[in-house]
């Protein structure tokens, strides 16, 4: 993405596993109100939805992708590899939707973040092969095997930047964020073993890093009650999409105001 390139509406899509389907509901609400993001930044599930949107697919097809090809479904088991799902076995599913496998072939600008496990840094992808970059961004540790790109191992972008507003901040006149990592109060009994403590610690840490970036956005859409749904569950996709849609509709006055103000000043 050229440093001087400017866009009217940017969209930041956080990670969230299967909860990423809520992003589709947000996109549906935006399009219904004539708000068409022309630049997207995504991490993990947000990278997947962002790629589908940037390729020109509408909400119905995007939802179909998760219903038919859900990458979080435990059906492509890894053998003798560091993960439950073999990331390489998911490539064919993506090729059906991205046959050109190129950022340059997308209809909208897209930037995704992944974590370089070799050097321990965040890496931004916005050109060249698309599918490896999106899979790298969404390769959740333990669940997915790391993705190899140019001899380097990559894992989920959410490790380093689960709400990657920094990828496009300052390049969009209006920046809309969608965050899917709700923090709810837990009862002490819910943190009852070492795994629960680790999960909670990661959840809290990632949330606060993301929260600090909210101020970069004009509006942040935060779908409610997503904690009801498993991060890697493959059921309730329609309910999750509806939660995103409802949240975006609730924030629509603020979104429309931000877009109108930007257009008036422009």
Question: Would you mind describing this structure in some detail?
Answer:
- The protein is an alpha/beta fold.
- Helices cover 37% and strands 16% of the residues.
- It contains 8 helices and 8 strands, in the order βαβαααββαββαβαβα.
- It has helices spanning 21-32, 45-54, 59-69, 91-97, 130-137, 158-161, 194-211, 237-265; strands spanning 7-13, 39-43, 109-116, 121-125, 147-149, 152-155, 172-178, 219-221.
- Strands 1, 2, 3, 4, 5, 6, 7 and 8 form an 8-stranded mixed β-sheet that branches.
- The longest helix is centred in the C-terminal third of the chain and has 29 residues, at 237-265.
- The two termini are 22 Å apart.
Task: Point out poorly predicted stretches.
Answer: 77-83
The total beta strand count reads: 8
Give the termini distance in whole angstroms: 22 Å
Query: Residue-averaged pLDDT, rounded?
Result: 88
């Amino acid at each position: 993405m050229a440093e001087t390139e400017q866009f009217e509406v940017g969209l930041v899509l956080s990670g969230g596993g299967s909860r990423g389907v809520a992003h589709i509901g947000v996109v549906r609400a935006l399009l219904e109100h004539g708000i068409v993001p022309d630049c997207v930044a995504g991490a993990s599930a947000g990278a997947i939805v962002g790629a589908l949107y940037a390729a020109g697919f509408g909400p119905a097809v995007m939802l179909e992708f998760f219903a038919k090809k859900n990458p979080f479904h435990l059906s492509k088991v890894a053998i003798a590899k560091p993960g439950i799902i073999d990331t390489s076995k998911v490539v064919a599913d993506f090729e059906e939707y991205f046959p050109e496998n190129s950022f340059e072939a997308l209809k909208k600008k897209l930037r995704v973040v992944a974590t370089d496990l070799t050097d321990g840094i965040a890496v931004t992808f916005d050109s060249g092969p698309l599918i490896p970059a999106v899979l790298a961004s969404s390769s959740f540790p333990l669940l997915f095997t790391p993705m190899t790109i140019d001899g380097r191992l990559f894992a989920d972008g959410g490790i380093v930047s689960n709400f990657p507003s920094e990828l496009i901040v300052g390049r969009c006149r209006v920046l809309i964020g969608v965050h899917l990592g709700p923090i709810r109060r837990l009862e002490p009994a819910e943190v009852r073993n070492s795994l629960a403590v680790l999960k909670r610690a990661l959840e809290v840490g990632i949330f606060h890093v993301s929260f600090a970036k909210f101020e970069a956005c004009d509006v942040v859409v935060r779908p409610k009650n997503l904690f009801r749904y498993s991060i890697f569950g493959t059921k309730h996709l329609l309910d999750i999409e509806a939660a995103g849609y409802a949240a975006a509709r609730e924030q629509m006055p603020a979104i429309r105001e931000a877009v109108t103000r930007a257009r008036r000043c422009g």
